[in-house]
Specification:
- There is one protein chain.
- The chain is α/β, with parallel strands linked by helices and 503 residues long.
- It folds into four domains: 170 residues, Rossmann fold (3-Layer(aba) Sandwich); 69 residues, no CATH class; 156 residues, 3-Layer(aba) Sandwich (Rossmann fold), CATH 3.40.50; 73 residues, no CATH class.
- It has 17 helices and 22 strands.
- Helix 15 links the parallel strand 19 and strand 20.
- The model has no long low-confidence stretch (mean pLDDT 87).
């Protein structure tokens, strides 16, 4: 029986009591409680697999809790589905894009409540005016009739937030909202979040970027291994204390030591050009180094990496491997030449979500596991288990579907998939986007170990601390051009950003 809560504090807007949730082989949440006040930005942090997204999916009606109670404004609720939660006043912006790319901005933002007039016909004028107000609020320069696929990744993310705000929500959940945003776009989002807090909305903010948590949140709750560790006022704690609560240990060094020098050039890129994306790209990538690639979103970094990997047709220029001119007209040819590519969007471009961990890890070179015309199950299992152990992938089994893993463990599966090909050249695009500090440290150490073993690593990242902390040299792009290459000992945030904005 759903009932009001007589003991609810008037300052509490949302209360979660003793929530449990299990999936096959995984206890995702165990007796988790959370209290969120009115006029509060409440951060929820924890390592990947800690249960953050599971808890938010229960609040937003995606999952039903196995046990426990949820109260909104003192009344017990049981969100049956996302639409029901939305109608109750709980809106969520998921980490992964959920907008329909072939629909207009207006149709996406007001999909739950499209303005209508007589006989149920869409009121296009009102729809356009309401959408334009949202676009101006988030400083998106586009028409309400623009198709979502024509927006940048950052604009799409801001569009997700606008969609969540289309109703007068009581609770707004933001799950890694800045993972695809520039600093400027993040500032716009933060201003809007502060306005909502002042207007009485409760905001639950999930982010692995702890500097954002300390900049924006009033309180922070830490989850670890599906359980609540504690809640702290931001003014009474610090980053290191929160990290200790998250991982249960000290992380004394966020970045490994730099390499001791560069070997011979393994990859040479000469006058690489693709009309509309990048122009006249020149650089060398040496054996045993990590070459960081910095630049603002839209600078052409990902397009350049895809072109090197043979995934972009119509590219002009030359690519040399070990000093020999090569033609890379497909990813298969790149793989044959000893190259691997970890994509920015792991879910859409790097994984087969409905397939097992084992199937994903071996998917890039199936011929290596064949005996004649048949696959060798023993080889498949051995290879998958090797990388599950080496990368500490948290999964109940190598036969678990990747869809059921946390974001950080999905990222590790992508890494295992490409390391299984034994690459000599590794291209990685945003390798730690959306993953926790503990897993970040593991990925950073792995990349440095690979470089120390002689692998040439090209690493694209939008996080300046990561670029500065990991790179032996830093290549900076602006509007499709290389603005400069900085040695690690000459690089600083000011120097990199100066080049990134074209100065």
């Amino acid at each position: 029986m759903v009932q009001d809560r007589e003991t609810s504090s008037p300052e509490m807007n949302l209360e979660v009591e003793g929530v449990w949730k299990a999936f096959p082989g995984v206890q995702a949440l165990a007796d988790v409680s959370l209290q969120v006040r009115r006029n509060e930005v409440h951060a929820v942090v924890g390592e990947n697999g800690a249960g953050k997204s599971t808890l938010m999916n229960i609040l937003s009606g995606v999952y039903a809790a196995d046990r426990g109670r949820i109260f909104l404004e003192g009344q017990e609720i049981r969100p049956a589905n996302p639409k029901h939660a939305y109608n109750l006043g709980i809106s969520i912006v998921h980490q992964e894009n959920s907008l329909c790319s072939n629909m207009t901005i207006a149709e996406n933002i007001f999909v739950h409540d499209i303005p209508s007039r007589w006989a149920g016909l869409v009121d296009r004028r009102r729809l356009g005016a309401q959408t334009q107000a949202m676009l101006e609020m988030f400083k998106i320069r586009a028409s309400p009739e623009t198709l979502v696929r024509e927006l940048s990744v950052g604009q799409q993310q801001l569009g997700e937030v606008a969609k969540a705000l289309a109703c007068q929500c009581k609770v707004l959940i933001l799950d890694e909202p800045t993972s695809a945003l520039t600093d400027h776009e993040s500032a716009i989002l933060f201003d809007r979040v502060r306005q909502m807090r002042a207007q009485g909305t409760s905001v639950i903010y999930i982010s692995h970027r702890l500097h954002e948590v300390f900049r924006l949140a009033d309180r922070v709750t830490v989850l670890r291994d599906g359980r609540g560790v504690g809640t702290q006022h931001i003014s009474e704690t610090d980053v290191q204390a929160i990290v200790r609560m998250m991982v249960g240990r000290e992380i004394s060094q966020f970045y490994p030591d730099k390499g001791e020098g560069h070997g011979v050039p393994v990859l040479q890129v000469c006058h690489l050009t693709h009309e509309g994306s990048f122009e006249d790209i020149n650089f060398d990538l040496h054996r045993g180094e990590i070459l960081g690639v910095a630049g603002l979103i839209g600078a052409g970094r990902t397009a350049m990496a895809l072109a090197i990997f043979g995934a972009v047709p119509g590219v002009k220029g030359e690519i040399l491997i070990d000093g020999k001119l090569v033609t890379i007209d497909s990813p298969n040819k790149a793989i044959d030449l000893g190259m691997s590519y970890l994509p920015e969007n792991r879910r859409e471009e790097g994984l087969f979500l409905d397939m097992t961990v084992q199937a994903n890890i071996i998917s890039s070179h199936l011929d290596a596991f064949a005996t004649g015309p048949l696959m060798d199950p023993l080889k498949e299992r051995s290879e998958a288990q090797r990388f599950v152990d080496a990368l500490s992938i948290r999964t109940p089994s190598i036969l678990q579907k990747v869809l059921n893993l946390s974001g950080g463990n999905q990222q590790k599966v992508v890494v295992g998939k490409w390391l299984s090909t034994k690459p000599r050249i590794l291209l990685v695009d945003e390798p730690t986007r959306g993953i926790d500090v503990g897993t970040k440290a593991e990925i950073h150490n792995l990349l440095r170990e690979l470089a120390n073993e002689g692998v040439a690593v090209l690493m694209i990242s939008s996080e300046l601390p990561e670029i500065l902390g990991m790179s032996d040299r830093i290549l900076v792009m602006h509007e499709g051009r290389v603005m400069g290459v900085l040695p690690a000992d000459e690089a600083s945030e000011d120097a990199v950003m100066s080049l990134a904005i074209g100065s």
